[in-house]
Specification:
The protein has helices at residues 4-8, 30-46, 48-62, 71-91, 96-120, 128-133, 139-156, 158-166, 178-202, 206-220, 228-232, 238-243, 246-258, 265-289, 293-296. By secondary structure, it is mainly alpha-helical.
């Protein structure tokens, strides 16, 4: 405010608006954080063409100069299925015509899950330059990991098709549940990438820990062995390794219809329960730490 001498000299005009004090502070309420996270998801959906273009660019960049490109992974998966399929069928006393399709579907789906979890833990740290240089939603980087790996999965289905051509499954009406199972897989993979990406941005030792956990889960999940092997041999581990295993439900809701088996209600209950828990944790963690991601990476 001017002094009395300036006001008396006519230098002060009462009709001139006085400057207002603007206070800038970070919002710490959960309502604001949840709204910002929801807005981030909305902008991610709006930028769907950009996610698709970045995913294709990632695949081309990764296999640049390669002869077969991403089909090297398809070839290695096919060789692994053919190499160990017949051996494990004799080892587990299983019919080759039933075990080889089971192994092919299980390995392809598990490789996809393993890759999504591994790359999801580094989705923000690997995109450090884009996060700091461009103003875009953070959830876009998690969606980029999911779309990129679904594109790789699309051509990794080739070994399954070859096995199905030799040992054709008897499909029935449960195959109609495949679209719903794929949608649930996409939502779960996005939640996994978002949750692990946030934790991995804060703690850099998370990716190797995730890799070790996935390696242990590979042997504890019905992939190389079928759930019927536990029940037929009277082992009491079925409750832990099957009914309480979060990976079993996710695999079974896609694997059973592809193999022509009946709809497994226990697997769907398992998958939906763990999916709801996973999505809730991912959303809360992202809303809580979203504004800190650029400072962590």
């Amino acid at each position: 405010m001017p002094g009395p001498e300036k006001a008396g000299a006519g230098l002060f005009r009462p009709d001139t608006p006085l400057p207002q004090i603007v206070v800038i502070s970070s919002a710490r309420g959960w309502r604001t954080r949840l709204a910002a996270a929801a807005q981030d998801f909305h902008e991610t959906l709006r930028l769907w063409p950009l996610i698709w273009a970045l995913s294709l660019f990632d695949i081309r960049l990764r296999y640049r100069g390669s002869l077969l490109g991403p089909f090297w992974l398809t070839l290695s998966t096919g060789v692994m299925i053919g190499a160990i399929g017949f051996v494990y069928a004799r080892l587990f006393h299983q019919d080759v015509g039933a075990y080889l399709p089971f192994l092919a579907v299980s390995l392809v789906l598990w490789n996809f899950l393993n890759t999504v979890t591994g790359e999801g833990a580094t989705c923000f740290t690997q995109s450090e330059g884009m996060v700091r240089a461009m103003r875009m939603p953070h959830a876009l980087h998690a969606a980029r990991v999911v779309v990129r790996n679904f594109l790789v999965l699309a051509h990794n289905i080739l070994p399954i098709l070859i096995v199905f051509a030799v040992f054709p499954p008897h499909w029935s009406w449960p195959v109609l549940s495949l679209p719903a199972a794929l949608l649930l897989w996409m939502a779960d993979c996005f939640a996994v990438a978002l949750l692990l990406g946030v934790i991995g941005a804060r703690f850099r030792d998370v990716p190797p820990i995730v890799g070790s956990i996935m390696q242990i889960a590979f042997y504890l999940t019905p992939i190389m062995w079928s759930p019927e092997m536990l029940t037929h041999r009277g082992l009491g581990l079925s409750l832990i390794l099957i009914e309480m295993n979060p990976f079993y439900g996710m695999l079974e809701i896609l694997r059973a219809p592809l193999l022509g088996q009946a709809l497994n209600s226990l697997a769907w209950i398992n998958a939906l329960a763990y999916s709801a828990l996973l999505m809730g944790l991912a959303f809360l963690a992202f809303a809580r730490t979203r504004q800190r991601i650029p400072y962590w990476i």
